[in-house]
TrEMBL record:
Keywords: Calcium, Hydrolase, Metal-binding, Signal
Family: Belongs to the sulfatase family.
Name listed for the protein in its UniProt record: Arylsulfatase E
Keyword Ligase: no
Cofactor section: Ca(2+)
Signal sequence extent: 1-26
Positions of region (Disordered): 232-252
Protein's UniProt keywords contain Lipoprotein: no
GO cellular component terms given for this protein: endoplasmic reticulum
Coiled coil: none
Transmembrane parts of this sequence: none
GO MF term list: arylsulfatase activity; metal ion binding
UniProt domain Sulfatase N-terminal: residue ranges: 5-142
Species of origin: Eudyptes chrysocome
Length: 252
């Protein structure tokens, strides 16, 4: 690695294809993991991220470099090669990649490192968005976001520095393609997070939590169920979206 801009501000964007099919692993990492090709890819991604961090450290840039590591969606459940499942695992969260509303498709890791400014080991349980990266980078560069259009992102810096306690997002809208599938509301005075699903994918098989019959869940048509009234969940009490609320169970 060679830093031409070592003494000036720089933006390095690295888009890794690693936990995405087809799983292309270099020979050095084949068989490194107990979890097949998918695990091998994670091992290789981990090594690549480590190489980047090592260079930043060796160049003396650790305390002045803001690093953000995230995924653009949750693990794909339907990915396979022959009979081998190649997709990720989304823990307690329902659904996965390609599903506009379920938490398993939109809840992703967000890991930040900036030793000169942010204390290590801090966990922030506030909802942010990948749209927030743009205003955050503009803020760090001393710029101003465009004023001639609506910018949906919010700078992450006040939240990360602890100068505010809550995310700038009160509402978040979750689309599948151009179709609105769900909306969440972070009720600030109580900390409760409500989520309403207007449409959800039809799982195949029904109890699988995925669309194995189609290979990926569709966003509209006969592959989705429309809900009127919407399916309502209290994510602060039910993060796995297992118990839809009704007027009888939740009068509020």
């Amino acid at each position: 690695f060679y830093f031409r801009n070592k003494h000036r501000p720089f933006l390095l964007f690295v888009s890794l294809l690693h936990v995405h099919t087809p799983l292309v692993t270099t020979e050095k990492f084949l068989g490194r993991s107990r979890h097949g090709l998918y695990g091998d890819n994670i091992e290789e991604m981990d090594w690549m991220v480590g190489m980047l961090l090592d260079v930043i450290d060796k160049e003396g840039l650790k305390n002045t470099t803001f690093i953000y590591f995230a995924s653009d969606h949750g693990g794909s459940l339907e990915a396979h090669r022959g009979n081998a499942q190649l997709g990720g695992w989304n823990g307690i969260y329902k659904g996965g990649k390609g599903m506009g509303g379920w938490e398993g498709g939109i809840r992703v890791p967000g890991i930040v490192r900036w030793p000169g400014v942010l204390p290590a080991g801090t966990v922030i349980n506030e909802l942010t968005s990948l749209m927030d990266i743009f205003p955050t980078v503009v803020h760090l560069a001393g710029g101003a976001v465009p004023q001639d259009r609506v910018i949906d992102g919010r700078t992450l810096l006040p939240l990360l520095r602890g100068t505010v306690q809550h995310s700038g997002h009160e509402f978040m809208f979750h689309y599948c393609g151009v179709f609105l599938h769900a909306v969440r509301w972070h009720q600030k005075d109580s900390g409760t997070i409500w989520k309403a699903h207007y449409a959800t994918p039809v799982f195949q098989p029904e109890a699988s939590g995925a669309c194995f019959g189609r290979g990926i869940c569709p966003c509209f048509g006969d592959g989705v169920t429309h809900h009127d009234p919407p399916l309502l969940f209290d994510l602060s009490q039910d993060p796995s979206e297992s118990n839809p609320l009704s007027a009888d169970t939740e009068p509020l």
